[in-house]
Fold these 4 entries.
Entry 1:
Amino acid sequence: MLGLSFGGSFFGNFVTFLTRKGVKQMSKHVVVKVSGEAMGSGVRPLDRSKIGSLVLQISRLCNVERGMRIAVVIGGGNFIRGREAKDIGISQEVADIAGMMGSLANAKVLADSLKEQGREALVFSRFEATSALVLNYQSLLDLWVTQSPGYSIAILGGGTGVGGVSTDTAAAQLAVDIDADLLIKATNVRGVFSSDPKKPQVTTDRSMPEFFPSLSHAEMIERGLGVMDLGAVELCLRRAIDIRVCDQGYDVNALALAWHGEIGTIIHTDPVGELRVHTCV
């Protein structure tokens, strides 16, 4: 794995190192998974207004609680999606690599856009890249347990660095590695439904997608609900990390509202009585 490594003296001058072993910081740790489409789509893969909205959402999430630390995991679907390989006429391996490179590009653009608004963010990756581009993943884990003023945002690009593995899984693994308080999955629907609410539905009450305001990890896996990679859900189940699924296009306060539990679906470790459902209208 390539990346910028810190020597002892440099690292010591940069921040005060605290051991991870047995230490739980007083600050709140949240992983935010956003799709590449949050940056743009179609003929405009990098859209200024969309990027501006995402920057504002992240900034407002930073402000909801003192000591908030945010790790953003961003996809590359605004450039290419792995499942498009056959349509484009390229191998799956090349499509996966292109997707990881697109994710890295998004991470760099997002970090620069945050900097323009006075928010410093560091970019990391597990994907093999030159040290001039990003810091390596281990550096992220090391820096996460330090008290580093001005660096409360980390951005992970390139997914897991392995083709065929979703960025949902990358986000879940990161949430486990930093002992996150919450994983927010920001997507293009308002939460978890019994079926895709974006697809045309037969016009009967029985076929209408049902919205779940809350359910357990186990219930989501058992039902096979597809808004999130179920392997990622299982990772969070093992470490009892709650997931909040919300609509990233709700408004500029979407991430802050998700943190406070005011929008979306909460996926939790323990069932809370009978599963509540509401018909999507």
Entry 2:
Amino acid sequence: MKTLKKITAGITLTLAAMTATGCQTIQSTVESTATEAASSATDALLDEGKAKIDSMLDKGKDALSEAVGGESSSDASFDGSSYTGMDAMEALNALDTYDGAKAAGYSGEREALFGSWMDFDKDGCDTRDETLIAAMPDAEVNAKCRVLSGTMVDPYTGKTISATTADEVSKSIQIDHIVALSNAWDSGAHAWASPDMRYQIANDPLNLAPTASKVNQDKSDDSFDEWQAPSASGSCLIAAHQIAVKSKYDLAVTNAERAALSDAVSTCGITNLPVGAPAW
């Protein structure tokens, strides 16, 4: 917000200076014109000057609109320098390969196999609430840990999402499983003897990212070779976390998935893997 205020103040001062300069130029022309014929010319100059100033104002408004976001997105460059986990490429190379076949038993209903949002630390806030609160510095939260309002930057698009009611929060933002749970099931989770690990991966902050509902629906249960984020930095974040999650839970990748993730490691400059929740 500080940056935005500086941008707004700068644009306002620039427009004021442009207006003052334009008016001073026109006033000088008026004062130097002594005849009635020149007066008509002065009127024309005034009209022309006003048109130019109006054009400057319009350009300033457009610049301000772009600065605050509007429909545009902020695709900040990806920075994985804070990652302290294992070497990304070594971890990717160590993953087993599978053919992408669907494993039997996945019903499509998350809770049937992976449980619901849980409160592992018993603080009264489940994983969904905690993920939203972490992503929204200005979150308003009630006594039951429900987020009532707040603003966040979508890690997948770079766009700002603002919600002023709890209903808006629920409708506009969903929590994405970075490695989709159906993908986790097919790539190894179907063989886990205990459901506890399934509950863990479904609630692990390493595997969770809040994003716009439509973006989450677009991503669905696609793997990295099938879907990448609208912003380059978002795709880099997904690649880093997918490798980290698959390494942590010993899940496999297809050849196409491995190739796409390998390209991302190189393109994004991912050296080490993250060990916790994405940085907001």
Entry 3:
Amino acid sequence: MKRWKLVLMAVVAVGATTALVACAGKAGKDKAEKSETAASTNAGASNAKGQLTLGAAASLEKVFTDKIIPMFNEKYPDIKVTGTYDSSGKIQAQIEEGAKIDVFFSAATKQMDELDKKGLMDTASIHPMLENKLVMIAAKDKAEQFTSFEQIANAKKVAIGDPKSVPAGAYAKEVLESMEIWDAVQDKLSLGSNVTEVLNWVADGSASVGLVYATDAKKLADKVSVIEEAPEGTLKEKIVYPIGIVKNSDNAAAAKIFVDFLKTDAAKQVFVDSGFTVE
């Protein structure tokens, strides 16, 4: 009987050892597979190369040229990013005409949605990235003449973006119509081809006041003063900047890496420092 007990104990011990070895082997295999997957992903990123064209709203030019693109190039030196900056409507038109643009960063959802409906965007890649505010500005030496949005009707020359193609201009029109002073400023309007042009007109005194994004006003804080933010309720929706990859991109892999980079904490902080709110 004692002998049988010894045999039974030996069998149990062997079984337990075998199970431990099997588990250890499986764990090691899983770990190796995860390591291989991570290595493969990293290798794909590090091997990405080529030219990449960003089509972005004019209000994004400074943050990209001064900060974001240099940061990206430092991490991905083999991907060369070139930016073209203008009103979102003009960038939209360029994409519709077949321009070699890989990533579209719009200052409004309207232009992005229209391109997507036409099948020109990679729908899955579209992401609401940033939020901005519309403000009334005046040159530093004229700022004391104005204290609120309502006084825009007293200005000699009012600069806004062209509502037909410039999102900031469309927002400006919406605000002024909501405040019932759009008709009162019709004869005083100067329509800019993009928001940067409007900003410069106010800074150099060509226009008494202007309506631009808060981030643009911050760029020339030494030359213009913010009078007031657009009153609450005068805009139906938030000013959201969506980003997406153009469907016929010649370098979709690099475009994805670039868009993913913009979602990193480091890139987000740069946008926040420039006055944007990150969605």
Entry 4:
Amino acid sequence: MFSLTFLGTGAAEGFPGVFCACPACERARIAGGRNLKTRSCSLVDETILIDLSPDILPQALALGINLSKITSIVFTHTHADHLNLYALMSRANKNASIFPDTASRKGAIDVFGNRAVGRAIEQGFIENPAFCEERIIYHPIKAGDSFKADGLNFHALPANHKKDENCLLFIIEDGADSLLYANDTGILAEQSYDIIREYGKRFDVVSLDCARGLLPGDGHMGLAEDLATIERLHAMGLIDASSTLLLNHFSHMSGITPDEFSDQIKEYGLSLTYDGLQVKV
């Protein structure tokens, strides 16, 4: 068993949008609570981040998370709401991130991501030549690859999102329990289903993108695409009545608030994530 904590559950602009005065954002500001969403980022157990949000510091402070414990970051893609390069490079700055002499690996962190992530890190060191390169250990990954991060198994799937980049989704498992993390994607590609079918084990938790809300999907999914995905996973025997089904990465582009959307999806046995939600897998 392992834990997944949703540090942020909004899309690129947050909810309400940074400068937005649309009706949904105005209603969210008034309602507050779980209607307020920072940019998406998740914590697996206490040591693995999935993506690095531009809101990572306030997220960690709000939830009492000590980011110095992070030993691995797994990136889905390089959009700025998922790859906060400034924060990542601060790990390589010995003045910004100080570790005791006894610290394991002297503060080194494993970073898993596609080649675009690697190029971003390279550019970060070009711009900051005094930073300590051995503190960021980059591991290139692509769809179809499997790797370990802090004892957990990750299996990379292709995301249907940024057309000029090989964006990724992940199956995460510990040999007994498993999670499908499909955040920031349109309807899943057939290659993703091929990898899921080959994996072949039941998912305890499924987290799907739902930036579009009740609207038709595009480079993100809406409720119709989510239901179609869930129906297909059911047909494959990979989820059942005991699986936890979550919708994540919710955007103001949907035109409704998170609370309003949550009311709409209850009949399907689905739950909308919120900042700070923790689930056991």
